[in-house]
Amino acid sequence: MEASRRKFVQLLGSSPLLFVPAMGFSLGKANPEQSMTIQQVIDLILKSVPGAPFPNSVDTIKAGDASQKVTGIVTTMFATIDVIRKAAALGANFIIAHEPTFYTHSDETKWLETDEIYQYKIALLNKLHITVWRFHDHIHAHRPDGVLTGVLSALGWEKMADAKIPNLITLPASPLHSIIEGVKKKLEIKHLKYIGDKNQVCSRIVIMPGAAGVRTHIYSVGKQKPDLIICGEISEWETGEYIRDLQASGAKTSLLVLGHSVSEEPGMEWLLTWLKPQLPPIPLTHIPSGDPFSWD
C-alpha cells in the first residue's frame, strides 16, 4: 500500500469531500463553531454503533490525554513510530488506530515496563502530546462492518456482496490468477500467498480481512462452499494445512492470503471520508502503516 493512492489521504476543512460510500455510519453533526476535545470525537463516533460503548473492549485510550482539544486526526492501522512522527509533522494530536499500539491484543504494558522500545515509544507520544485510541471492536460491530465496507469499496465489489452475508461475494467467473492480479492492483499489494490452482475458475468468494481465525475460516468453507477464501492472515499450521488437506481430498476451495495490515487498511482510509462531514474543520489524514515485511 505504498503506491500513490494510499501514500497520504488528507482532508482539510477547506478541501472537497472525497467519495463517501452510501452505506455506512451516520453521525449527528458537530457544531462547526466549537472546537472539540478528543473525548468528544470518540463519543461522537461511538454513537453510531449499536450498544456502544462495549464493556471489556480493547477500544481504549492507549496513550495521551483525551481531554485535550483536537488539532488534527490521523487514521491508520498501527500507530507505529513512523506514523506517530508523521502525525506530529502534520500538527495532528489524535491517532485512531485499528490494531494494537503495544504488541498484544489487549495492549497490556506491565510486562513491557523495562523494555527499551516500549519506553521509547511511550516517551515519544508523551513528548509530542499525541493521544492514541484504538477503534477495533466497535468498527467491526457496526452493521455493515466498517472495515469490510472499506475493503469492498476499494475492490469495487460493493454491488456483488450478498445482502444477508456481506462478506460473501459473487463475481463473474474468472480464473484465480486474474482475481489475484486484480486484488494486488486495487489494494496495491506487491506480494501475497495463495493455495490452489491459478487456472481454477472462481465465482463464489468469501472475504475475511484481518485475522478471523481458523475456526471461522473452516466454518465458512463448510457453510458457504466458496471457490475462494480471501483473508488477511492465517496461522500457517492451522488454516493453511486445512486448505491443503481439503484440496487433496478433491475439493476446490482455494486460499488467498493478503497480509493483515494491507487487508484492513482500506477500512481505516474509508473511515476518514465518513468522519469528515460530521466534524468542524479539523484536518483529517489517513497515514498507512503499511506491511512491515520485505520480500527477497
Question: Which secondary structure elements does this structure contain, and how are they paired or packed?
Answer:
Elements: H1 4-7, E1 9-11, H2 38-46, E2 61-63, E3 73-76, H3 81-89, E4 94-97, H4 116-128, E5 131-134, H5 137-141, H6 146-155, E6 168-175, H7 176-187, E7 193-195, E8 201-208, H8 214-224, E9 228-231, H9 236-248, E10 254-257, H10 260-275, E11 284-286
Description:
The protein is an alpha/beta fold and 296 residues long. The protein has 2 domains: 4-142 and 263-286, NIF3 (NGG1p interacting factor 3)-like (Udp-n-acetylmuramoylalanyl-d-glutamate--2,6- Diaminopimelate Ligase, Chain: A, domain 1, 3-Layer(aba) Sandwich); 156-260, 3-Layer(aba) Sandwich (Udp-n-acetylmuramoylalanyl-d-glutamate--2,6- Diaminopimelate Ligase, Chain: A, domain 1), CATH 3.40.1390.30. The protein contains 10 helices and 11 strands. The chain has helices at 4-7, 38-46, 81-89, 116-128, 137-141, 146-155, 176-187, 214-224, 236-248, 260-275, and strands at 9-11, 61-63, 73-76, 94-97, 131-134, 168-175, 193-195, 201-208, 228-231, 254-257, 284-286. The strands form 2 sheets. A 6-stranded mixed beta sheet has the order 1-11-3-4-5-2, with helices on both faces. The protein has a 5-stranded mixed beta sheet with strand order 6-8-9-10-7. Helix 6 (146-155) packs across helix 10. The longest helix is centred in the C-terminal third of the chain and has 16 residues, at 260-275.
